[in-house]
Write a structure and sequence with these properties.
heterotrimer, A alpha+beta, B alpha+beta, C alpha+beta, B: alpha+beta, Beta-Lactamase, 3 domains, 6-stranded antiparallel sheet, 18 strands, globular, C: alpha+beta, Methylamine Dehydrogenase, Chain H, 4 domains, 6-stranded mixed sheet, 5-stranded antiparallel sheet, 18 helices, 33 strands, FUZ/MON1/HPS1_longin_2 (chain A), Mon1 (chain A)
């Protein structure tokens, strides 16, 4: 139990701890030549400063993902980050505001008879139309189910969950049966299908996948789903409702947010950001990015309790300004990206929305002012505060920011970069290289070029990501981490290479020769080095 | 962290769900359960869980049977050898006490257990049973006393001893391959062996099949690979070691004592009469069941050995095993085999190559004729006699996993954190693994190293 | 089945008399009959010649008259039939020229022996017109010149002679001297000269005083397997008549220098014997039992270090009964009357002549191999025996065929039999090769056994014989296929042991038979140990077997690889399998080591297109674009390669969808310094 606490501490410190790893890098780098790639001691995108919580390895990342919540003693064992912040300012009791998406009073009276009936009805109806008999449904590449420890359906990705009472019943039975032998069912494998079980607090999450993704990766995805649920409910509320009523029907609290989960799942299927545990930045001239950042800092510097200001464009990070000594975890940022990407409503009007960032504080809501910069600039600005009633202050701030940005032509810069199709390796002048993922470990940022032929269809892109995930899994296999993988496969040749400073996943023409491959990798690294200020955010601005 | 944490055999059971017609009959499903001391209720419960898991997976992808299930503390392996029959092996994941921030906690090293290897072992337990007892089906339909009871009895008789001999902790990729080591031999000597075996078949019509081994290596097999695989495994890992052990102790006594049959040669029966002129009969002879791919038959397995050569005679089970039969066998085999061995031995002496410890180790497997060769393993007796780290072996297993997905050809080069290079090459349906420990080598140097090795070892085949 | 027919001939007499004997006037009070074993001519001299001399030989039948100058002791034509020598006294020999007009010259001229009061034991024509007179005091060699009707002495040698034997094939004269006649002096007569061979002595058996220890009638000169031999009957007086047995000693002459006793034939009988030589076999006739035995000194026997003991090849058998055709009552009709075999009137001459003076018949003794086949039980012995006979190939093959029908038991002897056949086969090949290029085949221990001189007496059965007459015959389903494989492999083993390259049709047979009985894994092992030699045809055969046995494809590829000159084939095979990328990388490798001439890009592009896998086609296309860049640094294909359709196809598949390629939007993108 204690080590969870310790993890929590670590996560807060990780910003400082990074410094060591960075300084260590330079020296390590020379060694990493031995990894078989004649590569100069450069490490593009590396920076001593970061606004993101970075983790050293996938497994650690994954554990951290779950650890922060996994166990019930959390509440007692740690103090809420949000309250920390508030205490520093002034004492405001944290109570959910009316604007929070769900009315807790309503929930507080759960043993509502007709509620019972409804869920009972569900139980009935589920029996006649059974998805398990539908070929199409069975053929789905990846199913995701969420149910309560009592076996009540909460979410199903590919069909309305109420049709699945029975099968979810079985899942729950399997889990609890194994639990009785104080063990924990993790996964089942049949042919090309993996069944992965994750038990988090009061919930059971199950993934049934025919993809190449490894069990840890599926676990990670389920954890994201769980965190998504927390981000609308908070941990404390979730546990509370189930403490009060074991077979509570959680769907009533989640109405409307299924789309978030749906979107998140699709998002994860085509976004390397998730398994990389990193975020991608919008390429910008450093000067531009700085002036944008400065604008935000100057405008919002005075506003109390503003923790994060985040500017997103095309799901890429333009800039992020943070309150001193607080960091945002990529996992939380991904949830924010998911929120923005999946809610058209933000485009129409600026909104004031409560959001829980599980990694930051799984027990409390933050309040986000979300708005797009302008009609003619579809970048989304989020101002996150622990203060529930500063909507108008933030709204004003936003207006000022936009005006300044317009004056300094930053909007154009953002637009230009947004409208430009991202550069491909072909254009960079690496004919034998098809695609690449470059992750800078010290800043938890990654860069990847645009997809070029033959990856011109969704299936191909997903297949490619699948391959990347396999490599990633091997590279970070908990008990057997690797330094380097070079594999010539049926359709492409791939290289995965991790050094103390970066992780690299490269896709080559299948028939590339090893010398050519290595050659082009070092060219690539040189190029990224040359471009690093455009591609990455190398500083970590604070208010 | 002191003693190497071990994989342990927790449960092993065979059941047939269709044997329980209605509620309360569950125990009828159970055909064999290890450990037997476990009370019936938990036996039924565990089997119930297995059935649940099987049904659950089938409901999602019909046609694909459940392979295995990971729990935090165990690995459960599923195998359906024959319709409705399931074998389940549950092994305990190795665990170690770890100390983190002053508190001790048990860490379960799930990654240490390879499901593929476990799968392979479970299959072995079945094929081995089938070799000596016959398939479940044949037992049930045995004309005389075929019955579920008989099956239970045989399962118990076989597994109660066999399970103790499982080498869970020394198993590796070799168990997955279940390969045969062939003796490198020149064409003429091979033909001599082959013709001699033919002659044996010609002269003794009761002999249906033959096989010839030199030390642990196969020279000739009249059986089909699937059968030879199991027999070979039995000979190499069980029968011969035990025999040699016995020889070593009783060894000093003169060969077979003065008798007209053996004075001239070194031949002895490994199975069958321990000595030709011994009164106490022909000794007990194992029966084996083979040819499942076509028409299963049961044959006696007569194993005869002279010096380093071992020959297997698969004898028609209708033959009456009178002493005279063995005597005539002995007189025929002994002298000829003794001379044949020496010519084989002479040839082999030309082939021996001593590999320096520094030089790269390799492992070769051809799934089409099941031939394998390994300089990683000192012998093929599964007693952890390996020249590399378990980590590397596991990585080889991983690569093998991945390359199985490949169609035509492919190559995987891996560098571990401990600066081992592991290379896996797949071409023309053959697998070739190379292990090199060379700290400051780079990809190109390793690639050249592998090319060199292929040139040496695989020049006579299309492996590109 | 061939064998069965030979069974049908019923009797198993393995010797017979030639079908039509040379008939001549039988001996009577006014007709004298002489036989010249040099010219194989029978002389019937009617009343001293006045009433005519009839000469019958294998190819002459002449008659002439000569005046009676007293009883004729011996009469012989010179080798080229131009001089007739007649001996009437024991001191001189008369000569008459025999004219082309097929009549005798009127004038006789004579030559008396030089030795003082020596008496002539006999004479023989040697080379051309040279004649050798043998007297009890020695030998004298004369040159006769018919034109001048003169005779000139050439050489002479004086030595006490009891009797002599002459061998026309070897020109050896064996002289018996010494008081008991066991001192043996052999002379080799060459044109105009006499050569002494080393004297030797036959151990004397106890004989009555005045009687010779070795008598002329017990001695025969012959040539066996090109080696001059002295064959001598030795009667061993046993304690009683019954256990008295006779041996035949065979003395062999080496390089016309030395003579040594090298073989002893055990007769296990006693009484009167006569010796013939047929087809290098010693035939011993036994009068008492009216049977004959056959000995072959080339067959293995029991050796005591200096001498090899032989027993007869087959049990003694009588000569096949013979019916003589004689005129019947009228001229037209004939009747056949059985004639007595082994009759006392028989006179036996070397090598193979039997004369019945009473009947006036001259026969040749002949072998009946097909009968022998039945009486020689030991398979290996039989084969070896037949291998040493003239034109016995057909029979040997039949014998081998019959062995096959006796499988599996007969597999026991196969190894030795095949080894015997092949050691001969091997040495034949060695000869050929040496004669062709003077370079010997890589030496093989086995082949040493067959020394080249007696090689020409050994029957050659090569693999094509074995294939056409025996191995391929099996296809008619005579015996179990698995036994066919046994024989086949046994034969191939033997060939291999003798270092004889195996012909592909045998390998093909191995493969097809194994496939036929579905013994794929066994086949696999044979290929694995390279029992089957690599060749493109076999590789193709294997490829064709793939649907029966998947591994065949792998084996075929391996074989092509080993051939070293089949890169194109390998690429074809890979492409046909749809293994396009492996084919490409192999292609690249082959070119890198400069082994393959350029294979057109179209081949690969077409395959890529045909695969209907855009990704795959993409890879192939890019591969060649890169190649183009290296060759003439542009991605474009040269006109000559006719790849336009594929460029189109690529565009069709990717260009319009490929956002990456409208690079104008990325004008400001920097590229790596290349």
């Amino acid at each position: 139990m204690l080590w969870n606490v310790n993890r929590k501490r670590k996560f807060i410190n990780s910003g400082k701890t990074k410094v060591f790893s960075c300084s260590a890098m330079a020296t390590k780098e020379t060694v990493s030549v031995g990894d078989g790639i004649a590569e100069p001691g450069i490490e593009p995108g590396a920076s001593a400063e970061t606004m993101l919580v970075t983790t050293d390895s996938f497994e650690e990342y994954e554990q951290e993902m779950s650890s922060s919540i996994d166990d019930k003693h959390m509440k007692e064992s740690t103090t809420s980050t949000i309250s920390e912040i508030q205490e520093e300012v002034q004492d405001i009791p944290v109570t959910p505001t009316p604007t929070s998406p769900v009315d807790l009073k309503k929930v507080a009276s759960p043993d509502d008879p007709e509620l019972e009936d409804i869920s009972y009805q569900f139980g009935q109806t589920s029996l006649d139309v059974d998805p398990l008999r539908s070929k199409a449904w069975l053929a789905q590449k990846k199913h995701v189910f969420v149910l309560s420890q009592a076996g009540k359906p909460i979410y199903s990705r590919h069909s309305s969950e109420d049709k699945l009472v029975t099968v979810m019943g079985v899942m729950q039975a399997l889990v609890s049966f194994v639990q009785d032998g104080n063990d924990m069912i993790r996964s089942v494998h049949a042919g090309d299908t993996n069944f992965v079980f994750v038990v988090k607090g009061p919930l059971i999450l199950v993934s049934v996948s025919k993809t190449l993704e490894s069990v840890p990766q599926l676990v990670l995805q389920l954890t994201y789903v769980y965190n998504q649920i927390l981000s609308v409910l908070t941990q404390s509320q979730l546990t509370r409702v189930y403490d009060q009523r074991r077979n509570f029907d959680l769907r009533r609290l989640l109405t409307g947010s299924e789309r978030l989960i749906d979107h998140l799942l699709n998002f994860m299927d085509r976004e390397p950001a998730f398994f990389l545990g990193a975020v991608k930045c919008l390429p910008l001239l450093p000067s531009m990015r700085d002036s944008i950042t400065q604008t935000i800092v100057q405008t919002c510097g005075k506003i109390k309790n503003l923790v994060f200001a985040i500017l997103l464009a095309n799901n890429q990070l333009v800039t992020l300004v943070r309150m001193k000594k607080y960091f945002i975890h990529p996992a939380d940022l991904h949830l924010i990206q998911n929120l923005v990407d999946s809610s058209e409503s933000f485009k129409s009007a600026e909104s004031w929305t409560p959001i829980c960032l599980p990694k930051f504080d799984s027990n409390g809501f933050m309040h986000g002012h979300v708005s797009y910069l302008a009609e003619d600039c579809q970048a989304c600005l989020l101002l996150l505060t622990v203060d529930r009633d500063v909507f108008f202050t933030l709204s004003d701030a936003k207006q000022k920011i936009v005006e300044k940005l317009r004056r300094t032509n930053c909007l154009e810069a953002i637009n230009e970069s947004m409208n430009k199709t991202s550069v491909t390796t072909g254009e960079i002048g690496l004919p034998e290289m098809r695609h690449v993922l470059y992750k800078c470990r010290s800043t938890a940022q990654f860069w990847s070029p645009g997809f070029q032929s033959p990856y011109t269809t969704d299936e191909e892109v997903e297949r490619l990501l699948g391959l990347y995930q396999c490599l990633h899994h091997r590279l970070h296999a908990p008990s057997r981490p690797l330094k380097l993988i070079f594999q010539q496969l049926d359709k492409e040749t791939m290289l995965a290479w991790v050094t103390s400073g970066f992780e690299l996943y490269v896709t080559f023409e299948p028939l590339v020769t090893k010398p050519d491959a290595i050659n082009s990798v070092s060219k690539l690294l040189k190029w990224i080095k040359k471009e690093e200020e455009r591609l990455f955010i190398l500083n970590s601005p604070t208010f | 962290m002191s003693a190497k944490p071990e994989i342990t055999l927790e449960h092993f059971y065979v059941f047939n769900g269709t044997y329980a017609k209605k509620e309360g009959e569950e125990e009828k499903k159970i055909l064999y359960y290890y450990p037997s001391k476990i009370d019936l209720d938990s036996q039924i419960k565990n089997i119930g869980l297995s059935e649940a898991i099987i049904k659950f997976t089938e409901s999602f992808n019909p046609g694909q049977a459940c392979d295995y299930c990971h729990t935090h503390k165990t690995r459960q392996i599923y195998f359906q050898p024959e319709p409705d029959f399931w074998m389940v092996m549950i092994v305990g994941v190795p665990r170690v006490w770890k100390v983190k921030d002053g508190t001790q906690f048990m860490e379960y090293q799930n990654e240490e257990v390879s499901s593929n290897v476990c799968q392979a072992i479970l299959r072995q337990t079945y094929t081995m049973f089938r070799l000596f007892m016959g398939s479940f089906d044949t037992i049930l339909n045995d004309p005389e006393c075929g019955s579920v009871l008989l099956l239970k009895h045989k399962l118990d008789h076989f597994y109660s001893r066999y399970l103790l001999s499982l080498k869970l902790n020394n198993s590796d990729i070799l168990d997955v391959f279940q390969g045969l080591q062939f003796l490198p031999l020149d064409k003429t000597t091979f033909l001599r062996v082959q013709c001699f075996m033919n002659l044996v078949e010609a002269m003794f019509s009761q002999v249906k099949y033959t096989a010839f081994l030199y030390n642990d290596q196969l020279v000739w097999s009249g059986l089909d690979p699937e059968d030879m695989q199991v027999v070979y495994n039995y000979l190499i890992s069980t029968l011969l070691p035990a025999y040699l052990e016995k020889e070593l102790h009783g060894g000093s006594m003169p060969r077979n004592s003065p008798s007209p049959f053996t004075s001239s040669h070194y031949g002895k029966f490994v199975t069958g009469p321990s000595s030709i002129n011994e009164p106490n009969g022909t000794g007990k002879l194992p029966r084996v069941y083979i040819n499942y791919s076509t028409i299963p038959i049961s044959l006696y397995l007569v194993v005869y050995r002279a010096l380093s050569a071992t020959i297997c005679l698969f004898v028609d089970s209708k033959t009456s095993l009178v002493m005279d039969f063995f005597k005539s066998l002995d007189t025929f085999l002994g002298p000829q085999l003794t001379t044949l061995v020496s010519s084989v031995a002479e040839q082999c002496s030309k082939h021996v190559t001593i590999v320096a410890d520094s030089s790269p180790k390799y492992l070769y497997f051809n799934k089409l004729n099941l031939a394998y060769k390994s300089t990683i393993h000192l012998d093929n007796r599964r007693c952890s006699n390996v020249l590399t780290t378990p980590e590397v072996l596991r990585i080889i297993t991983d690569i093998n996993n991945d390359t199985n997905k490949l169609k035509e050809a492919g190559e995987v080069i891996i560098k571990t954190m401990s600066d081992y290079w592991v290379v896996g090459k797949l071409s023309n349906l053959r697998e070739f693994f190379v292990v090199i420990q060379q700290k400051n080598a780079n990809l190109i140097e390793i690639d050249d190293e592998v090319k060199r090795l292929c040139e040496q070892q695989l020049k006579s085949i299309f492996f590109h | 089945m061939e064998s069965s027919t030979s069974e049908d001939t019923g009797d198993d007499y393995y010797l017979e008399l030639s079908a039509d004997p040379i008939r001549f006037e039988s001996v009577s009070f006014l007709t004298n009959v002489f036989f010249d074993d040099s010219n194989k001519q029978v002389f019937a001299v009617r009343s001293g010649g006045v009433t005519g001399v009839l000469v019958k030989g294998p190819n002459q039948n002449l008659s002439f008259r000569m005046e009676d100058k007293g009883p004729v002791i011996s009469i012989k034509f010179s080798p080229d039939m131009n001089i007739l020598a007649i001996q009437r006294t024991n001191t001189s020999v008369e000569f008459v020229n025999y004219l082309p007009t097929r009549e005798l010259d009127s004038v006789e001229y004579s030559q008396s022996c030089k030795g003082k009061n020596a008496s002539i034991l006999g004479f023989v024509w040697t080379h051309g017109n040279e004649i050798l007179l043998v007297t009890d005091h020695g030998v004298e060699l004369f040159q006769v010149t018919p034109e001048k009707r003169t005779v000139k002495a050439l050489k002479s040698l004086s030595l006490g002679v009891n009797w002599f034997v002459f061998c026309p094939q070897s020109y050896l004269v064996l002289l018996s001297s010494g008081t008991i006649g066991n001192q043996m002096q052999a002379l080799h007569i060459t044109p105009g000269n006499l050569h002494k061979l080393t004297k030797f002595e036959m151990e004397a058996t106890a004989t009555k005083p005045g009687k010779l220890a070795v008598s002329e009638r017990d001695v025969a000169l012959a040539v066996l397997y090109d080696i001059p031999c002295i064959i001598v009957l030795r009667h061993q007086q046993g304690a009683s008549r019954s256990n008295a047995t006779t041996f035949v000693y065979v003395y062999t002459v080496h390089k016309m220098m030395t003579i040594k006793r090298s073989h002893i034939l055990k007769l296990d009988m006693s009484g009167r014997f006569a010796i013939n030589v047929v087809d290098n076999l010693i035939i011993v006739h036994h009068q008492a039992s009216k049977t004959s035995m056959i000995f072959d000194i080339m067959l293995p026997g029991v050796s005591d270090g200096t001498v090899i003991y032989h027993t007869s090849v087959a049990v003694p058998k009588p000569i096949k009964p013979y019916n003589l055709k004689v005129p019947g009552a009228t001229l037209s009709e004939h009747i056949f009357q059985p004639c007595q075999l082994y009759s006392p009137n028989w006179v036996v001459f070397q090598p193979n002549i039997v004369i019945d003076a009473k009947l006036g018949c001259l026969w040749y003794i002949e072998l009946r191999l097909d009968a022998l086949v039945k009486v020689i039980r030991d398979k290996i012995l039989l084969v070896e025996f037949l291998m040493q006979r003239k034109d016995a190939k057909q029979i040997l093959i039949q014998v081998l065929q019959s062995f096959m029908t006796q499988m599996p038991v007969s597999l026991m002897e196969m190894p030795t039999i095949f080894d015997k056949l092949n050691s001969v086969y091997r040495s034949h090949l060695e000869n050929e090769i040496q004669s062709q290029m003077g370079t010997p085949l890589q030496s093989n221990t086995k082949s040493v056994a067959t020394t080249l001189e007696n090689l020409k007496h050994k029957l050659l059965i090569d693999q094509s014989d074995i294939y056409t007459h025996i191995l391929s015959k099996f296809s008619e389903g005579t015996i179990e296929p698995k036994m066919v494989v046994w024989v086949l492999l046994e034969y191939i083993r033997s060939l291999a042991e003798h270092g004889i390259p195996v012909q592909h049709y045998l390998h093909e047979l191995v493969i097809t038979t194994l496939v036929h009985r579905k013994a794929y894994y066994q086949l696999h092992q044979l290929l694995q140990y390279h029992v089957v030699a690599d060749s493109k045809p076999l590789a193709c055969l294997l490829l064709s077997l793939e649907n029966l046995y998947p591994a065949a494809h792998q084996l075929a590829l391996d074989m092509l690889k080993r051939l070293g000159n089949a890169h194109e084939e390998i690429i074809e095979v890979l492409l046909s399998k749809g293994h396009i990328l492996p084919a490409l990388s192999f292609f690249r490798y082959v070119r890198s080591v400069g082994m393959a001439d350029e294979i057109s890009a179209r081949k690969f592009l077409e395959a890529g297109k045909a695969s209907n896998d855009p990704i795959l086609f993409h890879s192939v296309f890019k591969f060649f674009e890169q190649r183009n860049v290296r060759l003439h640094n542009t991605t474009a294909f040269t006109r000559g390669e006719h790849c336009q359709p594929y460029v189109q196809h690529f565009k069709y598949l990717f260009r319009e969808t490929d956002n990456g390629c409208n690079s104008d939007t990325n004008s400001n993108v920097s590229t790596v310094s290349t």
